[in-house]
Every structure is written in C-alpha cells, then in structure tokens.
Amino acid sequence: MKKFLDKRGSFGSRFGAIVAVGGSVVGLGNIWRFPYLAGENGGGAFIIAYILISFSVAVPIMLAEFGIGRSVRRNAKRAFQKLAPGKGWKAIGYLGIATAFVILSYYCVVAGWALNFLKQAALNQFEGKNILEINQQFNAFISSGWSSLFWTWTFIAATGIIVYLGVEKGIERYNKIFMPLLVLILIILVINSFTLPGYEKGFSFLFKPDLSKINGEVLLKALGQSFFSLSLGMGAMITYGAYIKKEENLFHIAGTVSITDVSVAILSGMAIFPAVFALGINPTSGPELIFITLPNVFQQMPGGYYVGVLFFILVFFAAITSSVSLLEVVTAYISQEMRLGRKRASIIATLGVVLTGSLCVISQTPESTLTLGGKNLVDFCNDFSSNYMLPIGGFFIVLFAGWVMKPEIFQSELTSKGVFGKHIYPIVRFLIRFVTPIVIALLFMDLTGLI
Ligand code: TRP
Questions:
Q1: Greater confidence, 101 or 4?
Q2: Which of 150, 222, 245, 309 could form a disulfide with 50 if both were Cys (CB 3.0 to 4.6 A apart)?
C-alpha cells in the first residue's frame, strides 16, 4: 500500500486505491471458491443470484465500509468507538477480527494446495495421468497430512514474513502487472476451452440458468460468496476506506473493484466448466474441483506446461495479497490490545494461524476425528465464515451506516461533500437502509426455518 500512499498517508491516486483494494478482493475466492460453488448450486442459477446479490447487497456494503472508514480514518474497531462511543458497536470490530482468524485458518490450507499444485506442475508430475489418477493423486495429498502441512506452513510463513517485515506495500505494487496477467491467462484458458469436445455443455451449464434451482439456500451461498470475494463484512474495507483521499470518488472505486472481481470469478468459471463437462468430472465435486480439472486442461493445451506453472504462480500471488490483508487485521488488533510492537504482534498472529491451520489440515486426514458440525475443519471454517460470520458482520455494518451514523456525515463522506453521485447516492442510501439488511435478515430467517 505504501507505494501508493502520499505524505498524508492516503493512496496517491484513484488507481493506487483500486490496485490496493483489488489485491485484497481478488484471490482464491474468485478462482477456487466461485467455480466449485457454482458447480454445486446449479451453475447459471447460482451465477444470476451471485450477480444480483453482488450489485444490490454487496456493493452498498462496500460503500458503507468505505464511508465509515474514510469519515474517521481509523480501522474497524476504533472507527466504531469514535463514531458511537461507549455503545456496543465496537463488538462488530471484534467479530471482524474473529472472522479474519477463522478465514485465515483454512485459506492457508487451500493456498497450500495451490502451492503443491504449482510444484507438481513445475515437476511435470501430472504428465500422462488420466482423470482418475489425478483425482487419486489429489486425495492422497490431502490425506497425507505431512505434505499438506508442509505447504500450509510454507504459505503461512510467507504471509507472516510479509506482515512482519511490513513490506506488503512493496508487494502490492506488483498487482499492477500480475492482476492483468492473471486475467489474460484466464482469457486464454477460456478460449482454449472452446476447443474441447462438448464444450457447449459447460457453457450452457453456466449461461442457461434453470431458475427453479434458486432457493433460500442457493441465495444464502451466493450472499456468502459475494461477501467473501469482495472482502466484506469484517471491516477490511473500513481500513482501506481510511486510506482513500477525501476528494476521491468512492462510487467509482467500488464500481471498478466489484466489476473486476465479479468478472474474474465468471472468467474462472468459463475456464473450468467446459473442461469439467468434456472430461466427465462431476460439477458438484466441491472444493477440489479446480485441482482435479486443471491438470487435464494444461496437459491437453499447447504450451500447457508453461501456462500451468505461470497460472499457479499468479494464483499464489493473488492468494497472498488477500491473506496478507487478513493477517494485517489480526496483527493490528493484537498489537493494540496487548500493547505490543507490530513485529511481535505479527509473530503471535502467525503462530496462532499455524496452530489453527494445522488443525484444519489434520482434520482432513482419514484417521482424524476432528469435526465441527459434522464437517472437517476446512469445510467448517470455510462455510461458517462466509455463510454466517461475514453476513452477520455486514448486517450490523449497514445498520450502523444507515441508521446510527449521522446522515449528513455519511452523505458528505460518500459524495465527497456533494461532488459525486448526486443521482446514485439516494439509491445507495435506500439499499443500505432497507434492502441490504432486509435481504440478509430474510435469508437467515429462511435458513433457520423461521419463515
Ligand atoms: N476476497 C479474498 C478472496 O477472494 C479473501 C479475503 C481477503 C477476504 N480479505 C478478506 C474475505 C476480508 C473476507 C474479508 O480470496
């Protein structure tokens, strides 16, 4: 971030703000989580629900977070303390920190899968293997314990070192090159997927929605995915908002970031599903979907070796800029609460994630009896953080922005004192006050069987 910060500690330009926020939002959520959820929840139906929710519910929350953060120029917990002193609102900050921790615990495990994939691709270990063998190879890796632990730790260490050294800003500047490159490779993969036999099936799965598949559960999963992918509901965007200059157009930033994020997710789906169908892989395979599909794609395409290696280097990069933004939140909290220097705080935070991340890995081995709610810990942390923790956090954040914060302050912040969004602001305000909280509440009521 620092590269883009000026003397007053703000992003130097709108572009700088977009690049930094983009680093947090584009990650495994787009490339790994979106495709497998779409596969499990009816393909096109899920995509429609996802797009609708992203722009009617999630983007207003992003604007609310930016507005809160920029109005007081503080991180989540302190922002609430300052805007509503003595009241219970700072609990949202605590919830956010807990959420960051739960996400990190399994995010590092999945990033470890990506690192292992990178190693296998680089050493040509997929060569000549059929789908069944690749599937077995993946399962053997997950059940191995040690190998999975090794890559999980490697990823956590890399994240921890970046936060410890405080060089996340230096790394973010590479987003400018790596993110467009990632999009480019995705586009190449999409083009390649047109050459696969039976690719039409994959495309009609994605783009010919069967609307009867949309139900409360699908909507809740789409909601969770929107929150996760756009890094919302835990105050991360409050912190970024604090660095955005007062004269910058927040609508423009939120719009660009969200369109980019949704596009990367859909491109990733388009890159994968034609292959899923062409190869006869089950679209409801779950979290392993991209890991069992892509090796076959890279094998079949000309220059696939290089594309595969480069693609997973970029996935690793996208993942680490996201995990850094999560570990930052936990580190800042430990440093404030325990009155420790940032470096020590980052060590404690990292060790905490090593512990919970390891438990997640262990819970996936066949001998393990570690489960929560009938799931292994990776699945539990994954589902619980996105489907419950983030939407609940988001619910209170919009209630705060829409009903507690002084309307004049909020309006002046979002519109940069009336300069931007004259026509959009009233719509956003309406979405924040009514639509967003009501949609979240209804989905939760549906889930718990209240309605
Ligand atoms: N959005 C990131 C991804 O898609 C994950 C992430 C980073 C995140 N920071 C966050 C999710 C804060 C929720 C909240 O991979």
A1: 101
A2: 222
Say if ligand 1 is within 6 A of residue 326 CB: yes
Mean pLDDT of the chain: 94
Mean pLDDT over 3-12 rounds to: 67
- Whether the model pTM is above 0.90: yes
Question: Is the CB–ligand 1 distance for residue 228 below 6 Å?
Answer: yes
| Mean of pLDDT values over 253-263 | 97
Q: Ligand 1: which residue has its CA nearest to atom 10?
A: 231
Residue of the CA atom closest to atom 15 of ligand 1: 27
What does the pLDDT average to over 298-305? 94
Q: Cβ neighbours of residue 397 under 8 Å, at least 6 residues apart?
A: 61, 64, 65, 68, 92, 233, 235, 238
List the residue whose alpha carbon is closest to atom 8 of ligand 1.
231
Ligand 1 site, residue 30, Cβ cutoff 6 A: yes
Long-range pairs for 428-433 at CB < 8 Å and ≥24 separation? 428/60, 428/63, 428/251, 429/402, 431/56, 431/57, 431/60, 432/60, 432/61, 432/63, 432/64, 432/398, 432/401, 432/402, 433/398, 433/402, 433/403
Q: Is the pLDDT of residue 382 over 90?
A: yes
Question: Using a 6 Å cutoff on CB, does residue 329 contact ligand 1?
Answer: no
